[in-house]
Design brief:
four-stranded antiparallel β-sheet, 6 strands
């Protein structure tokens, strides 16, 4: 049985869930989220995490020539924060995410494995090794 742990990133999507909630509903949701997060901390599952500001910029294009305001506040899928956890598998990380109370208010949790090495760079190195290898 594999008991090793890998790191997974939770991206919390949906930053406007609170706008239609009563103060009582807000208190209940925040209490449930805090309890969930504190349990992950106590169990040694949570590593780090932070909420994100609503402002930001997206840099793109050659030499970063294109700068646009982001993360597009009009989007319901805006990322409101992140959490890095330890879990034995993607399935286990997904099961942990399924317990997150923000799901009950219409938000989403994206679960992504954290790579030890950038998959794109691995592909580039392999291509270069193949192309530059002596025939």
């Amino acid at each position: 049985m594999n008991t090793s742990k890998s790191e997974y990133l939770f991206l919390f999507r949906g930053s406007d869930w609170d706008r239609s909630k009563s103060p009582a509903e807000l208190q209940q949701t925040m209490s449930r989220f805090r309890a969930w997060f504190e349990r992950l901390n106590a169990d040694g599952i949570a590593k780090t995490g932070q909420p994100l500001m609503e402002e930001g910029r997206i840099v793109s294009g050659k030499n970063g020539r294109t700068i646009s305001d982001g993360p597009f506040a009009e989007s319901k899928e805006a990322i409101g924060g992140y959490l890095i956890i330890n879990a034995p598998s993607l399935d286990a990380a997904t099961a942990i995410a399924k317990e997150c109370p923000i799901l009950d208010v219409g938000s989403a949790v994206e679960v992504r494995p954290i790579a030890e090495d950038c998959p794109t760079m691995q592909r580039v190195r392999k291509t270069l090794e193949t192309e530059l290898a002596p025939a």
